[in-house]
Amino acid sequence: MAKVAPRVAHSCLLLLAVSVLSFALLSAAPGNFFDELRLNPSISPETVAALKAQYGVDQPWPARYFHWLSSIVHGEFGYSLSYHCSVGSLLWPRARNTLLLTSLAMLFAWMLAIPWGIVEAVKPNSWLSHITSWLTSTLLGIPELVLGLLLLFFAARTSWVPTGGMFSSNPSSASASWKLADLARHLVLPVAALVLGSAPIFVRYVRSAVAEVWGAPFIEHMRGLGIPTVRLLYRHALPVAANSLISVFGFSLGALLSTSLVIEIVLSWPGLGPLALEALLSRDIYVVMAVVLLSSVFLVFGNLVADLLLYWSDPRIRTV
Amino acid sequence: MAVEATAASTAPTLLRVEDLCLAYEVRHRVSRERTKTIALQDVSLELCSGQTLALVGPSGSGKSSLARCLVLLERPSSGRILYQGQDILKLSPDAEKSVRQELHLIFQDSATALNPRFTVQELVAEPLLIHKSIFPGVNFNEKVRELLDQVELGKTWHDRRPLELSGGQRQRVAIARGFALRPKILVLDEALSALDLSAQAQLANLLLDLQECHGLSYLYVTHDLRMARALADEVAVLEAGRIVQSGLPAEVLTPSLQPVS
Fold first, then answer.
1. Are the beta carbons of B101 and A226 separated by less than 8 Å?
2. Most exposed among A63, A146, A320, B17, judged by the fewest C-beta atoms under 10 Å?
3. Cα-Cα-Cα-Cα dihedral of A274, A276, A279, A281, to 10°?
């Protein structure tokens, strides 16, 4: 606990700094939500000025920042000028949808990457390793946008899975199991796109971490004793290789809210991605700030989790 | 060239290497061209029970490759390795496992040769756990304590991890671990080279004491001619993968008599 408390305090300070900097930069950017209204000849400059005053846009940014900060305490995260409601009420359902999608994608990506990376590291010259290595390189070379479009094309041609959205327009009387199955069918495409995009990166990390340990003299020595390969892998190689992978895992936790932005837009997933894009285009500053802050919270939280996992898993760190 | 047992060694031959050849084949990743590097060529030698054979030679002469072949970490291209008259390159996996208990390699860099996450106790216990079937009813904790006592590593160090130990202490742990399965042959691959003079002398004495008490045989791979002279009963000189000289230390390691050494 004595080691965790300073880290948490440090994380809170970091988040505060991120929020101040983001707010200042967004405020410094030219233009605001009401600039488009000025172009409309039917709206008088006085009306625009009155609207700015009503929503506090004419105040200096520190005042607006502190006002926004106090709204966070109430869970509102400011007021959306586009949607005319509190940002909090917009944010939570979207964040939940994004988390559902990215958590599943991360889970499957790691489940795929760990055995895949181990095979590439332990049997580098096997035919299986050559195939997986070729596949990894190919997938790494395809941009996420192209991957999403290819899957969308595939789904549209085959009609095996829905091409977008989160639910079908089902009757309200549909059973819970039908709704669950419907959600699962809608998840297939975006999850597949995210897994194919992120798993090759994790494979590279796993392969590199395990290969480095697999060639270490202490592994050679154990092999000389006639230790079975499975025991060698699980008792000696993987625990030592785990440290760098835990850091990458923490980073992937941190990217849970930001990793799916493109895929959500391409595959019409009602998550934070489309909301953030619309808010950026319309300069809905409080929505953008909320998305930035939430992503930062996840990044800081992911790193904290990685640190705690390292502390828990590596006795060397505990004794320092 | 075979190293014949000298008049001084009347002990039976424990290990005989016959015409051992080892070549590494490397394929260029881009051109796919295969190149062959010969590490060992027609190497023959003998190690008698309870004796020390020093294998000396310049860097890249194939000393470590030979050491790795002897403990089955490398498969030679051709030749035979006879341990107690049995060709260990042709053994079944089960028989090979039992031979691995009796031939043990100790590396030069103990910092990387010991699992950094294990404590000293865990490191020494690991070989016992792997081969626990040969120690029925043995209390492993006591056995580990006994082994660490033999290498004079006090109780205060038992819960430390390798990076908390000095180079000499780590090498003591490596020796205790190497000695855990009561091997008949310890292959010491530059095992003392990375240590300071005082630690070298202490460990050399420890190795001699263990040899005297337990009748161990050592294949001592080194480029340190002074240590080879101090420890070895016989010396073989390896150059470019071939044994070019062999005999008693006084004969081989006298520069005026033997230009290669």
1. yes
2. A320
3. -80
Report the chain A residue with the minimal C-alpha distance to residue B98: A226
Cβ-Cβ contacts under 8 Å, A239 against chain B:
117
| Assigned architecture for domain A94-319 | Orthogonal Bundle (1.10)
Q: Which residues of chain A have pLDDT under 50?
A: none
Q: What domains are defined for chain B?
A: 13-105+183-252 (3.40.50.300)
pLDDT in tens, A197-244: 999 999 999 999 999 999 898 998 888 888 888 999 999 999 999 988
Contacts made by residues A116-120, CB under 8 angstroms, sequence distance 24+ = A116/A199, A116/A203, A116/A206, A117/A202, A117/A203, A117/A204, A117/A205, A117/A206, A117/A207, A117/A209, A117/A210, A118/A206, A118/A207, A118/A210, A118/A233, A118/A238, A120/A203, A120/A206, A120/A207, A120/A211
pTM of the model: 0.80
Query: Domains of chain A: which residue ranges?
Result: 15-74, 94-319
User: Which residues in chain A have their CB less than 8 angstroms from residue B116's CB?
Assistant: 218, 240, 316
Query: Which residue reads 């019409």 in tokens?
Result: A268
How far is the alpha carbon of A236 from chain B, nearest alpha carbon, in Å? 7
**Which range is least confidently modeled, A11-20, A154-163, B133-142, B144-153?**
B133-142
Q: Which of A75, A98, A76 shows the shortest CA–CA distance to A86?
A: A76
Distance of CA A147 to the CA centre of its chain: 17
